Amino acid sequence: MKKLIPILLMTLLAACAPDKAKQQSEPGDYEIAEEKNPNAVAENANPGKGLGQVTNVTLNTPLEVERVGRGKAVYEMKCQACHKLNDQRVVGPGWSGVTKRRKPEWIMNMVTNTDMMLDKDPEAQKLLELCLTRMPNQNVSIGDARDILEFMRQNDGEK
Amino acid sequence: MKNIKRMTTLLLAAVVSGTFYQCKPKGPAEVSTGDAASKVYVAPGKYDEFYNVVSGGFNGQIGIYGIPSGRLFRIIPVFSLTPESGYGFSEETKPMLNTSHGEIPWDDLHHIALSQTKGEHDGRWIFANGNNTPRVARVGFKSFRTEEILEIPNSGGNHSSPFITENTEYVVAGTRFSIPMGDKDVPINSYKENFKGSISFIKIDPATGHMNIAFQLRTPGFNFDLSRAGKGPSHGWFFFSCYNTEQAYTLLEVNASQKDKDFIMAVNWKKAEEYLAQGKGRIEKVKYAHNVYDDKKHSATSTMENQVTVLDIEQLPGLVYFIPCPKSPHGCDVDPTGEYIVGSGKLAAMMPVFSFSKIQNAIAAKAFEGDFNGVPVIKYEAALHGEVKKPGLGPLHTEFDEKGNAYTSFFVSSEIVKWNVKTLEIIDRVPTYYSIGHLSVPGGPTSKPHGKYVIAYNKITKDRYLPTGPELTQSAQLYDISGEKMKLLLDFPTTGEPHYAEAIPASMIMPNSLKIYKIEENQNPYATKGEGQARVERKGNQVHVYMTAIRSHLTPDNIEGVNVGDEIYFHVTNLEQDWDVPHGFAIKGATNAEILIMPGETQTLKYKPTEVGVVPFYCTDFCSALHQEMSGYLRVSASGVKTPLKFSTGIPDDQASDAGK
What we know:
The complex is a heterodimer of chains A (159) and B (661). By secondary structure, chain A is mainly α. Chain A has one domain: Cytochrome Bc1 Complex, Chain D, domain 2, CATH 1.10.760. In chain A, 49% of the residues lie in helices and 4% in strands. The longest helix of chain A has 15 residues, at 65-79. Among the domains of chain B are: 1-31; 77-221 and 281-315, Methylamine Dehydrogenase, Chain H (7 Propeller); 519-648, Immunoglobulin-like, CATH 2.60.40.420. Chain B has 8 helices and 46 strands. The termini of chain B are far apart. The relative contact order of chain B is 0.10. The interface between A and B is medium-sized, with 16 and 25 residues.
């Protein structure tokens, strides 16, 4: 199974990354828990990082422009219907300031492991009580989630 | 009337024996009734072992049931309009029901053929026939949706269909009624002179499943009933049962039952391919619709085809042989080894079993008793393996298990009879309730039956269920065939009327079942891939609404600037990417139906407002806690009134100019 994870990861990346050159630099940017069931991470193993495959994300400055562009495209297709870019809550919370409130791992786990986060993560559960609509699993790959994160950083004013 | 008396006797016998054994709990009946419940019980959260793909007969659809529980999972729209999902109503699916006669919103779906590789189920496609306006449909096992419908020209009713070869090379379509070819206006009593039969061999593209008529056999005018492909040693041959070799055209009940024997028609389709390659085919001008659903564009196209290649069996030696078969044969079933062909004469008191190797020897030795319009008729005895003596009354169909046994349905005596294919000895018989038609053993028509059960699809229900007025549910019954004796386990109702069905292990289908349509791959030209693209565009009197749906709102949900007389197209894209979260769309006064849109899919509902007013629309599929809020308004102005075109969501004032921004 351990051998499978990198293959799975490459498949995920191949499915989401538009250009090959970009793919090769990506695996080092974040670590993925190697478990038999990738989502069955021990609870509270990563305080504030949420539950899911993403255990460690490296953020770079300046922002990676290509990621921002791709992240924006995914946002417009899969997220915009419920999340505004300001602080206004529509169906879900507005994204303004989200990268200051949450760790990057938490954000990526929320986006890619939505159902388990809503069932088990206390912070995600607080949001469900507030919004009353379960955030849908939008079938976002890890690579796409990383791009969305970069777009969120830009939305929060990072350069 | 005799039949009913017999049934009453059987019923009484069943009741009496049941009562009797209740006093003797350790008797044999206890075994057949006592643990029957546990054998069909599928605990909550557990899955059935088999998918049962059941034809819907006059409802024009396919039912998907679980075996052994008998639970109904899904009805797949095939030949009939389905307002529930919008099949045949949405702009994307309308072309599926197109024919050379225009849109035909219904058909009579009789038989199922699951795709095979090397004689075994491969879990790719379901084929089904439209009996009335001749058509063949292909349903994908990933999506459980109808992906293709091909009309069959030169056919008077597509009953002998869609039987399949062991590598899905061909699916056949044999005409039930012979007709004058080329829409000729001739007297009906010129049948012998003018009427012809027609068998289409539909080539299946091994990669895509796409269907094309490779050639048609032109035959003497009589009725084709059922068929089966050869397998193993008999691969390359196809066998068709024929009745009305009397060539009657009125009161067939009497006039088509005169002869002692009709025919099983053996077709050497490899020979047909040779003749075709030699250019012996004749091109005929015809007109037939070919409808294909594209699962990336989420929409269908209908193309009108204009020719077929015809091979005349009366002119081409070695292509076809007739084998005499007693009394209007119905079933014509080939056993798993490919050596034995079972003919079921509906009116015969015995069942002939033919031998493929004997047929080959008879052809080599020219053991013919004569010819029919130039086609050799093989001597009955020369082709015969043997006869099953006094099997029952009214044999119809035969399925097989993996142990060399055959199971034949008997309509008149209302029973299933188990017999040994080689020795022709009868092993067991069980009553069915009532008057069984088709029957199905999982993998029964393949080289590798899965066995375990036989399912009876009965033609008469009577008192088996709570009555619902004159019209009753259909009656299916599940029997355990793992032992020497067949045991009745379960009655289960089906939507009607089932004809043939096949069953396939769930393990071959379940892992491949599609969960969502990926929004990234949605190529519908009217897709709205993101709420920012939601908009309304006017083109003359056509108004196109590019709408998105996600829990729990539609965008745009306020639309103004349309007029009475406009044609409004609601192109609704479901932005969800989660399994089992469809959204529906309905608008008050729509004269068609609703549409159900699966995650990532785009479907279009056409709406023509006829009155001035403000018209609500809403999501019909309960999707979330705020489902009741998932709605909107369309303002309809009088014809000619220039209300500005406006659309928005979530902006409750006059500043609204653009949706979703």
